[in-house]
Amino acid sequence: MKQRGHTLVGTLAVIAILGILIGGYYMGGFGAKNSKDGEPKTVVGQVKRQADKTVVQSNLRQIRTAIEMHRQMNDDAYPQTLDELRLPKEITTDPNTDQPFAYDPATGAVWSTVQGYEEL
Predict the structure, then answer these.
(1) CA 70 to chain centre
(2) How many other β-carbons are positioned within 10 Å of the β-carbon of residue 96?
(3) 91 touches 110 (CB < 8 A)
(4) Which run of H or of E encompasses 66?
(5) What pLDDT, in 10s, does the model give residues 49-82?
(6) How far apart are the first and last CA of the chain?
(7) CA distance 111 to 109
(8) In angstroms, how far apart are the furthest CA atoms of the chain?
(9) What is the value of pTM for the model shown?
(10) β-sheet bridge partners, residue 100
């Protein structure tokens, strides 16, 4: 009399195949590139892009707060450079390019030069 049922090896093979298919779905296919507008096609890429935007937005908010505090303490004068704020380099540089954020000392405006991040 033969026993009927699934073997451990067969079950593991099915799980592995499902894992590969699900992984391919979430990754947007194997070798998926960014779309024409520069936005990532993959779920992982989209999450990373949103996380990068959140970091940039947080850094810019901290810099703007420091600029406003400097202005209030120095007779409405904006700092000439971001270095005057004495903030850590991790905050005053764009994490995408490792370049300092753009700053206009006449208006106190600070922004990112990375495409898609200009309005943060």
Answers:
(1) 28
(2) 17
(3) no
(4) helix 43-73
(5) 888 899 999 999 999 999 999 999 999 999 999 9
(6) 71
(7) 7
(8) 95
(9) 0.69
(10) 93
